[in-house]
Design goal:
The structure is a single chain. This protein has two domains: 209 residues, Rossmann fold (3-Layer(aba) Sandwich), CATH 3.40.50.300; 212 residues, no CATH class. Helices cover 55% and strands 19% of the residues. Strand 6 and strand 7 form a beta hairpin. Helix 6 packs antiparallel against helix 12, helix 7 packs across helix 11 and helix 14 runs parallel beside helix 15.
C-alpha cells in the first residue's frame, strides 16, 4: 500500500509531500494543474524511461520517493532473489534523475538496477491510464485475467516447468542431429586420420631415441675408428695408460716404507687403475658393437620421416601431442558411431515430455474454461448496471496447434453492447466509454480474486457521466475495501464524491515561476471543489446543495 510520495524538482513541482491512505481516494484539479505530472513522477518508480527535460528548470536533479507498506505482499522471496535488503513492513523506492542524463534507482536506500525497480514497482503500483485500455486487445493480458480468476497459479507453474524441460530437450535433440549430420560428412576423413595415427603405433619418447640412433648410425665408421684408437691407447700390449699406471704403482711401492706420502699415492693410482680398466673394457665393447648398418639406418630414417610428416600435418612438434590427437579423433569417431543411440534416446525423451506437456495443458484448459464461464457471468453483472442493458460479453477459448509458454489456449474477449449485435473483439467495436467500463469491471473482478497492489485509475471515467459515473465510483469504492487502496484521478463530481479521501492538484504562480501542488481537502473544501466541478467557477447555491447530496451518497 502506498503511504506517501515525495517529489522534488520534477517538471512544475518544486517540492511536494503527500500522505495516502487505504480505501478509495480521489484526485481532482483543473486541466493543466499537474495531475499528469504526478503520474509521470510515479511512472519513474515503475521503471519508465527518464527524460532530463522533466527536471525543473534551474535544478541539478529531481527526486521521486515513495514509501509502501508491504507487510501483506509476501515479497521476501523477491528481495532475497535480487539480493536486496528486506525491511519487514516497509519499502522505499527512490529514483534520481541528474541533469547530466544519468538516472539512479534505490530500493530501501540500496542502489538497484532499473530492471529491479521495474519488477518491484509493478508489484506495488498498478497505474491504469487511458492507453492501457489498448491491453484489451492483447492476448497475454486477456489470458492473465483468466488465469487470475481460475486461480491456476500452481498448475501453470507446473506446466511451465514441463514446457521448459520439453523445449530444452527439443533444442538438445536438434543440436545433436545437426552435429551428427555434420560429423557424418567428415566421418571418412576422421576415420582415415585415426587409422593413420593408430597404424603408426606411436610411443612416447621414441622420437628422441630414434633421432639419437640415426646420428649414431650415420657416423658409425668415425665412431668405431675413434673407439679403436682409444682402446689401443689404454690397453694394448705396448706402452698404454694401464701399463704406465701399473708401473707407477710398482715404483712407488719400493719407497713406500721410507717415504710416507708414497702409500697414499699408491692407493690413488690403484683407484685410477681400476677405473681405467673398466673404462677400457667399455670402450672395447662399444667398439665391437658399433657397426654400419644401412638397413637399420633406412628403417630409422623412414620412421622419423613418418613422425615428422604426421607432426607437420597436425601442426604439432612432439609424439605426445600426436598421441593426444589420436585419442581425441578416436573419441570423436566413437561419438559419431554412438550418436544414433543418443538421438534415439533424446527423441523418446522429447516425445514423453511432449505428452506430459499436453496433459498438463489440458488441465489448464479445463480450469480456464470454468473461469471463462464465471467471467462471462460476472462481466454481465458488472456491465448491465453501468448503462449497457443489452451487453453481451463472451470469452472465447480456442486450442492452439502446438503448446507455447502459457499452454495450448488461444483466448479472445468478445463484446457487443447492442441487442442482437454481433460479438466482436472488444477493442475493435467498443467506444472509449465502453472500453473504460469493461476495464474497470475486469479490474474489479481481479481485485475480488487476489490481493492487488495500489491501483491508480487515470480518468477511467472517460466517455461516461451522470448515473453511470456514480456506479463506476461505487465499484471503485468497493475495490478499495478490505484494506485495499484505489486512487482515481477524475474530472467527474459523481466519482469525486465517493472517495473516502479527496486530494486537489493546483498550480500556483510565484515570482520564480509556476509550481504544482497537491493537498488533502477538508469536508467543507470538498463541498466547494465538487460544486465547482458541477457548475464551473461560479458557485451557486444549487451546486453546493448538489455537492452535499453527492457527498451524502444521495441521489440527485
Amino acid at each position: 500500500m502506498l503511504q506517501s510520495i515525495h517529489i522534488q524538482n520534477y517538471a512544475l513541482i518544486e517540492s511536494l509531500d503527500i500522505d495516502f491512505h487505504s480505501g478509495f481516494s480521489v484526485i481532482t484539479g483543473e486541466t493543466g494543474a499537474g495531475k499528469s505530472i504526478i503520474l509521470g513522477a510515479i511512472g519513474l518508480l515503475v521503471g519508465q524511461r527518464a527524460d532530463i527535460k522533466a527536471i525543473k528548470t534551474g535544478a541539478n536533479k529531481c527526486i521521486v520517493e515513495a514509501r509502501f507498506n508491504i507487510s501483506s505482499y509476501q515479497l521476501e522471496a523477491f528481495f532475497e532473489e535480487h539480493d536486496l535488503e528486506y525491511e519487514d513492513g516497509e519499502c522505499i523506492l527512490r529514483r534520481e534523475l541528474l541533469a547530466s542524463g544519468k538516472s539512479r534507482a534505490f530500493i530501501n536506500d540500496t542502489p538497484a538496477s532499473l530492471a529491479q525497480m521495474k519488477a518491484l514497482g509493478e508489484k506495488l503500483i498498478d497505474v491504469h491510464s487511458q492507453h492501457q485500455n489498448l491491453l484489451l486487445n492483447h492476448e497475454d493480458f486477456q489470458l492473465s485475467v483468466i488465469d487470475i480468476l481460475a486461480n491456476d497459479e500452481e498448475q501453470l507453474t507446473a506446466y511451465k516447468a514441463l514446457y521448459q524441460d520439453y523445449k530444452r530437450a527439443s533444442r538438445e535433440l536438434a543440436q545433436l542431429i545437426e552435429q551428427a549430420e555434420k560429423s557424418r560428412q567428415d566421418e571418412d576423413y576422421i576415420s582415415f586420420q585415426v587409422n593413420q595415427l593408430e597404424e603408426a603405433n606411436l610411443q612416447s619418447g621414441e622420437q628422441e631415441e630414434l633421432e639419437q640412433e640415426a646420428e649414431t648410425l650415420s657416423h658409425a665408421e668415425d665412431i668405431k675408428a675413434s673407439l679403436y684408437k682409444v682402446d689401443q691407447l689404454m690397453a694394448s700390449d705396448d706402452t698404454t695408460l694401464l701399463s704406465v699406471t701399473k708401473d707407477c704403482m710398482q715404483a712407488l711401492q719400493g719407497i713406500s716404507r721410507v717415504f710416507a706420502p708414497a702409500q697414499e699415492w699408491i692407493d690413488r693410482l690403484e683407484s685410477c687403475y681400476i677405473e681405467l680398466k673398466d673404462l677400457a673394457n667399455d670402450v672395447s665393447s662399444a667398439g665391437e658393437d658399433v657397426e654400419y648398418n644401412p638397413t637399420r639406418l633406412e628403417f630409422v630414417n623412414d620412421r622419423l620421416n613418418l613422425i615428422y610428416t604426421l607432426q607437420q600435418k597436425h601442426h604439432v612438434s612432439s609424439v605426445d601431442e600426436l598421441i593426444t590427437i589420436a585419442k581425441g579423433l578416436r573419441t570423436q569417431l566413437d561419438d559419431i558411431t554412438s550418436s544414433d543411440d543418443r538421438i534415439l534416446e533424446l527423441t523418446r525423451q522429447k516425445e514423453d515430455l511432449y505428452n506430459k506437456v499436453k496433459a498438463s495443458a489440458r488441465l489448464l484448459t479445463d480450469m480456464r474454461t470454468v473461469a471463462a464461464q464465471e467471467i462471462e457471468k460476472q462481466m454481465q453483472a458488472y456491465l448491465v448496471p453501468l448503462g449497457m442493458p443489452n451487453v453481451r460479453f463472451a470469452v472465447e477459448l480456442n486450442p492452439r496447434k502446438e503448446p507455447d509458454g502459457t499452454g495450448m489456449d488461444y483466448v479472445n474477449f468478445l463484446f457487443s453492447a447492442n441487442k442482437n449485435g454481433t460479438l466482436q473483439q472488444v477493442a475493435s467495436i467498443a467506444s472509449g466509454g465502453e472500453i473504460a467500463r469493461v476495464m474497470l469491471s475486469l479490474k474489479a473482478m481481479i481485485a475480488g480474486a487476489v490481493k492487488l497492489p495500489t491501483i491508480i485509475f487515470d480518468e477511467i471515467d472517460t466517455g461516461v457521466s451522470g448515473s453511470i459515473a456514480e456506479k463506476m465510483a461505487f465499484i471503485m469504492q468497493e475495490m478499495g475495501q478490505a484494506d485495499r487502496q484505489v486512487i482515481s484521478i477524475t474530472h467527474l463530481p459523481q466519482i469525486a464524491a465517493r472517495g473516502a479521501h479527496h486530494y486537489k492538484v493546483y498550480k500556483e504562480d510565484t515570482e520564480t515561476g509556476t509550481n504544482s501542488h497537491i493537498r488533502p481537502l477538508t469536508h467543507e473544501e470538498r463541498i466547494n471543489e465538487i460544486a465547482n466541478m458541477l457548475s464551473g467557477a461560479t458557485l451557486t447555491e444549487a451546486a453546493l446543495n448538489n455537492a452535499k447530496a453527492l457527498l451524502n451518497n444521495e441521489t440527485l
